[in-house]
Amino acid sequence: MNKTARFVLKTVAAGLAFCAFVCLVVGSWSDMYEAIERRRACRLSKQESGDYADEELYQ
User: Fold this and answer.
1) Cα separation, 34 vs 50, whole angstroms
2) Which helix (H) or strand (E) holds 29?
3) What is the pLDDT of residue 42?
4) What is the pLDDT of residue 5?
5) What SS3 class is residue 45?
C-alpha cells in the first residue's frame, strides 16, 4: 500500500509540475511574441537604413 501511495503522489506531483510549466508558457506567450516582433522590426530597420547615405542627409 505504501508503494502505491508514493507512486500516486509522484504522478500527481509530475502532473502539477507539467501544468505549471504549461501555464507559464501560455502566460508569457504574448511577451515572447512582442520580443520577437521587436527584434524583427529592429533587424528590418537596420537592413533598410543600410541603403541610405546618412552622412549626406545630416549635412
Assistant:
1) 24
2) helix 29-49
3) 79
4) 95
5) helix
pLDDT digits (tens, 9 = 90+) for 1-57: 799 999 999 999 999 999 999 999 888 888 888 888 888 887 766 655 555 666 666
As a whole number of angstroms, the distance between CA 44 and CA 19 comes to 37
**Residue-level pLDDT at 53:** 63
How many helices (H) and strands (E) are present in the chain, helices listed first? Answer: 3, 0
What type of residue sits at position 4?
Answer: T
Q: What are the grid coordinates assigned to 59, written together?
A: 549635412
- State phi, psi for 40 to the nearest 5 degrees: -60, -45
- The sign of the CA dihedral 32, 37, 38, 44 is positive
DSSP 52: S
